[in-house]
Amino acid sequence: MLRRIMFFVLILVFTVGMSTAQAFAAGEKDLENEASNVAKLLISCRAVIAANQGLFNNPEIGDKGFTGDVYVSKVIEHFKNATGVEISESDATSSDPVKKALGTLLVSTKNVIDESQKVLNTKGKGFKKIIPATVGRRTGYKYTTAMGGDYYLKQTSLKYRNPANRPDAFEARILKEFESEGYPKGQGKGKVVTKADGSKIYRYMQPLYIKPVCLKCHGDPKGSKDIAGRIKEGYKVGDVRGAVSVMIPYPSEDLAQAK
Ligand code: HEC
User: What is the DSSP annotation of 108-150?
Assistant: First the structure.
């Protein structure tokens, strides 16, 4: 009889232990999913801007028809193809924090393009500084301001051109990891981080790589000037150029348990 009870107790302890561990893992998986989708949405924004670079730089065309609405519909489609997730601008007012973050990011990036209409539609002007990096930086800033609290989004690099993109200690460490030999290409990295005040946040980074189209400004000859008058870094195709860095709040224990 005693043996039976002992056996039962053992099974019980094992089951409870396992489910707690699983709940913890599932909680972190949710955070990773949420943060990586925020990063991937900014990457979709960057990709849509890159795909329309020729249009933006064309001095012959005045009105380009590239309004915030046109842009956002392309971003929604790109993001759906990349992740399978459907989003809309109205998600910005959702009570679901995950939806709210993605919707707010969409509205933020739309505003950047709406605010750029005058320069974008200037006839007789070629390069207008509307490139993935500047749209990404302005979008990240608007999103971070709109979300407030522990939310934050930016592009960063160990060889940053803009001081606003300078990596903090955490970001520099992860960027070095991304650049290290043998690091699995394309894989993002997330971590629960404890802040100085003891509260926790979740941080995530998604690497960005040099593609042939980036070489015009970031490639060789190293030290020469690009179209924007900035110094080329001498990167090669496939190099880690930088990363999208995301921060989201860590749910309180009550919240995590209620899930
Ligand atoms: C037309 C020139 C041009 C092209 C093409 C270009 N970039 Fe950039 N890139 C810039 C400029 C200029 C900045 C600084 C932008 C700013 O002021 O925020 C920059 C900044 C960045 C940053 C932010 C870090 C930093 O240096 O401040 C990343 C990341 C980046 N570029 C990645 C890429 C990738 C990846 C590609 C190709 C898909 C690419 N860029 C193509 C000009 C370019």
Answer: HHHHHHHHTHHHHT-TT----S-SHHHHHHHHHHHHHHHH-TT
Positions in the chain whose pLDDT score sits under 50? 254, 256-259
pTM for the full predicted model: 0.89
The pLDDT, as a whole number, for residue 28 is: 86
- Between the CA of residue 62 and those of 47, 102, 176, 192, what are the distances in Å? 23, 32, 43, 48
Task: Determine the atom of ligand 1 nearest the C-alpha atom of 127.
Answer: 1
Is beta strand 240-249 parallel, antiparallel or unpaired with respect to 189-194?
unpaired
Residue list, ligand 1 pocket, CB within 6 Å: 50, 131-134, 137, 155, 157, 160-162, 165, 208, 210-211, 213-214, 216-218, 226-228, 230, 241-242
Pocket test for ligand 1, best of 161, 231, 246 (most atoms within 8 A of CB): 161
Residue nearest to atom 41 of ligand 1 (CA): 214
Cβ atoms of 128 and 56 closer than 8 Å: yes
Backbone dihedral angles phi then psi of residue 65, each to the nearest 5 degrees:
65, 10
Task: Tell me how far apart the alpha carbons of residues 73 and 12 are, in angstroms, rounded to a whole number.
Answer: 52
Omega cis (within 30) before 221: yes
Beta carbons within 8 Å of 165's beta carbon, 6+ residues apart: 137, 154, 155, 156, 157, 242
